[in-house]
Write a structure and sequence with these properties.
Elements lengths: L4 H7 L4 H17 L12 E8 L5 E12 L5 E6 L5 E7 L3 H6 L3 H4 L4 E12 L4 E8 L8 E5 L4 E6 L2 E7 L8 H7 L3 E4 L22 E5 L1 E4 L3 E3 L9 E11 L4 E10 L5 E14 L2 E12 L4 E4 L5 E6 L3 H6 L4 E4 L2 E2 L16 H4 L6 E9 L10 E10 L8 E4 L4 E5 L2 E3 L5 E11 L4 H12 L3 E5 L1
Antiparallel strand pairs: 1-6, 1-28, 2-5, 3-4, 3-6, 4-5, 7-8, 8-9, 9-10, 11-19, 12-13, 12-18, 14-15, 15-16, 16-17, 17-27, 18-26, 19-25, 20-21, 20-22, 22-23, 23-27, 24-25
């Protein structure tokens, strides 16, 4: 569960301007302290944990849990059970929202600091548990993840030399209308699990304002009747990257960015700390999307519509151009027909199906993307499934939207006070081929009901 009430209580006695400054300072430290995995020379135990599966049988479950340790240096650890079976774990700085939520506990922790442990749990039967001992481990080979950042426009994460995702962060260019449209907001591209095809769309194409994995709202108000739309950015608004920290280690590749949300006057009304973490599995890529938005103004209201707000995924332009009739969705109530989609609406004559398209634990889209290099009528379509998993703690109501051309996601109306940042979490599970509803539900259940981790003495 996400917690912002702890921070609100802790900072409630401060004036709004001081609170905002403190929150932004935390954001900058969160980015600065996050570094590369360091090699270690010793192998002494540093912690012991009990991992309980609960009522769900675990399979390739992504475990991300918080620990208090004296040494918070990012590093790989070996996790061993009583039979000396070994998993690779990664210690790293926690997410921005966790730093804020646990701020008051840092005093009671003494010389211990908050860290996040991430590892993949291959399997654990329902109702069973396993005890793992974390030991320092020396890294003898470089991680398979590598970032390639040109320093001003694009940072691409690769695994074994193949692209996984790319952060597109070129600063807004007002030199011409075309250049402004191409650069007015940041987003992430996503590649197929084997890295041979780009799954997402950037600027241009059908509905050019939809791009890759993106977060924003098209109906924003604040202050003295000020309005903003950071989805279309058609009246001077923009999202500008102010700081980027990229990390690689044996378990994941990660980007953390500090982003200004600018209004029509060009001035920031909010700052976002956006984190995307990619983990590679067999024939699959898992991308955790975590973000926190700090308001710099009073009475910040975020709203929109199902197509132009929230956290969304937009597939390649090749989908609307060539294969949209093959697109279909898996929902909690089953698999839909190809070419058919739902869209939340509260209009008077709207169907009950669309009106009830809210608060879903998951939504998955299966698309076909042809080989872009194939000429003529003969095309080779590759099928991919993108599962969108929502944390139950995300704001409600969460209104979902789908389109056959490959854009889907959800949004929520909310207000953000300066002393209480908005934090949301989603997980994308991208797999080769089709996936059935049962499989996707299991992935969703693992995300919604994480393993219970107990620190043992």
């Amino acid at each position: 569960m996400l917690k912002t009430d702890v921070l609100s209580i802790t900072l409630s006695f401060l004036k709004p301007r001081v609170r905002r400054c403190l929150l932004l300072l935390v954001a900058l430290n969160w980015l600065t302290l996050h570094g590369e995995c360091q090699a270690q020379k010793t192998s002494k135990p540093i912690f012991k944990i009990k991992v309980d599966a609960g009522e769900i049988a675990r399979s390739n479950d992504i475990v991300r849990t918080l620990l208090w340790l004296e040494n918070n240096e990012p590093r790989a650890v070996a996790l061993t059970d009583k039979s000396d079976n070994e998993l690779t774990g990664q210690l790293s700085s926690p997410s921005y929202s966790d730093v804020l939520a646990y701020a008051d506990q840092s005093k009671a922790a003494g010389n211990k600091k908050l860290v996040e442990l991430t590892f993949v749990l291959p399997s654990l039967a329902a109702g069973k548990s396993v005890t793992l001992t974390g030991k320092e481990t020396k890294r003898t080979t470089p991680p398979k993840f590598q970032w390639h950042d040109d320093g001003s426009t694009r940072a691409e994460l690769q695994h074994d030399g193949k692209p996984v995702m790319a952060y597109m962060y070129e600063e807004v260019d007002n030199g011409s209308p075309e250049r402004r449209k191409a650069t007015y907001k940041v987003f992430h591209h996503v590649y197929s699990p084997n890295g041979d095809r780009l799954l997402t769309k950037g600027p241009g194409g059908l509905f050019p304002h939809h791009r890759g994995i993106f977060f924003g709202f098209n109906r924003i108000s604040y202050g003295n009747n000020q309005q903003a739309d950071v989805w279309h950015c058609s009246k001077g608004e923009s999202q500008i990257n102010r700081k980027l920290v990229t990390t690689t280690n044996p378990v994941f590749g990660q980007s953390r960015s500090l982003i200004d949300w600018n209004g029509r006057d060009g001035q920031p009304f909010a700052k976002e700390s956006r984190e995307l973490t990619a983990i590679k599995l067999d024939k699959a890529t898992v991308i955790d999307f975590r973000t926190s938005l700090v308001s710099l103004v009073e009475q910040l209201k975020l709203d929109g519509d199902p197509q132009h707000a929230g956290v969304q995924f937009r597939a390649s332009q090749l989908v609307p151009d060539k294969t949209k009739q093959l697109t279909y969705y898996n929902r909690p109530d089953g698999q839909g027909a190809p070419g058919k989609f739902r869209n939340w609406s509260n209009k008077k004559n709207e169907s009950d199906i669309n009106k009830s398209h809210i608060n879903l634990p998951f939504l998955a889209m299966t698309i076909a993307i042809p080989d872009a290099t194939t000429k003529g009528k003969e095309t080779e379509n590759s099928v991919y499934t993108i599962a969108y998993l929502s944390d139950d703690a995300n704001p409600k109501p969460s209104r979902f939207s789908e389109r056959d051309y490959g854009r889907f996601g959800s949004y929520f109306p909310t207000t953000v006070a300066p002393e209480a940042p908005l934090s949301v979490r989603y997980r994308y599970w991208i797999v080769d081929g089709a996936a059935d509803t049962k499989t996707i539900k299991h992935l969703s259940d693992q995300f919604a009901q994480p393993v219970k981790v107990e620190v043992l003495k």
